[in-house]
Amino acid sequence: MGTDFTPEQKRYLEGFVAGLAATRAAGGLGTASPASAPVAAAEPTGPEAAAHRAMARTEAEGRKLVPEEKGKREELGLDSYARMKQHARDGLFPKGPDVFRWKFHGLFYVAPTQDSFMCRLRIPNGILKHWQFAGIADMADAHAGGYSHVTTRANLQIREIPATDGTAVVEKLIGLGLTSRGSGADNIRNVTGGPTAGIDPQELLDTRPYALEWHYHILADRSLYGLPRKFNVAFDGGGLIGALEDTNDIGFQAVEVKDGFGVEPGVWFRLVLGGITGHLDLARDTGVILRPEEATRVADAIVRVFIDHGDRTDRKKARLKYLLDAWGFAKFLAATEEKLGMALTRVPAEAVAPRPEPDRLAHVGVHAQKQAGLNWVGVVIPVGKMTTEQMRGLASIARDLGDGDLRLTVWQNLILSGVNDANVPLVEAALEALGLTSRATAIRAGLVACTGAAGCKFGNADTKATAVAIADHCDGRVAADLPVNIHVTGCHHSCAQHYIGDIGLVGARVAVNEEGDTVDGYHLLVGGGFGSDAAIARELWRDVKAEDAPARVEGLLKAWLAHRADDTETLARFTRRHEPDALRALVEEMAE
User: Fold this and answer.
1) What is the biggest distance separating any 2 CA atoms in the chain, rounded to whole angstroms?
2) pLDDT at residue 6, rounded to an integer
3) Are strands 147-150 and 127-129 parallel, antiparallel or unpaired?
């Protein structure tokens, strides 16, 4: 054959020769290189390249990847959908690494507690339309247990989904304009924001556009999945109802920056990092402020530094907090700036005006919006559980008497917005017909409980039952006149964030005899807080039986009311100024 090749022929021959060389390098042909020559590992490519490089670097350092990391490298959960569909057709639940992979699509196999799936949604800023809410109720009836749970990330879960129906739920959510993608496993979880965003007379900033932009950014970029561990981001606009952004890996806090500090005065986001209350840490101020429109770009850079350098050898030390602890903020922020290709803006603490304080009862009851003549109505959802009948009823109220939106909060309740003054009594009557109310005692308004042993394999106690028992027991016995937050969580994962409650209960198995038999129980903590009153609760009692928890809480509340410094002293501040021994003595005194 002659050497006058066409351009197409030349490209073919070049590709053919390159292919031969690659085959020889991989050991497929034997004459290219001496046997002793090292073979270079192929450089990772594609959306998972950064994660795969981090895994390879970890192994090159002689450290062992945890099974979840190996599973992600073998097959990222996003790629498991065809097998998920086949499992549904065959009526099979996942096994082995697939239990983890299915969570990438929001499906959690919750055996042995329930032989079924739980599906967790993504609801950016916690806001749904009435028809979406009613559609979820229809799905819960058709494919699940006929109820839903409001979560502590202003989100919804539906439970008791059989093996045959998991993918049907995922697909029907998409039909409703919603998704469950990335709501579990090592991914960026539901994006939270101010629940009264856009309607709050106090807010500095409407968080909705920024939460939505970050939500869509996550969904559109595959490289932001399969992080070293889960990741939480929250936006707080300074409204009357807080977003608990200081419990998140990244918190964006709307602040008023004063004149005279070298930056344009006005509303900025302050950046706080490293919140993870289950590991005894709240997010810390970085000294960085940014324009709200820069939030997605900055969050993206932070996440990518975490992908590159987060721990992939120890699940208990893999959250962002531990990278910050190891590096310090200065090194981490320098790496973030390198990713960004720009310097972050820093101001001294005195450049930022004090943030407006939230109202700890604004998530329940009737409150005037900044739009004249309109109100939001905070509906009490007992420990976050709603029947589908109640869901459809709430959707109808939002459609007929409000602005059509339902707003979920981190306090496991929801808000009906855009209710005009004349319709408030009608809304309250309609709620009563559903077995719900907008009115709550100080104790019930701040009652939070995770799923617990009734639906989670990690739960050591039936948290929702205990929370209801505490409220039923204390109401009528204790006349609390200031807000009280009681957080009941089932295990050390702290989904109900027991460390930030005035009173926190964390599930424990309590021994009842020498043979090792146990019953539901709790360790009880006091003195937690958030926002300007942020604090991590400290332990007061260990191994309290679940049946004894209501009376123990009653005694603590009575001791507070009897011995507080004045009528304005909160329960948290009261417990913080007493040592545990003194507190226990005061409670025992009330029982005599």
Assistant:
1) 108
2) 66
3) unpaired
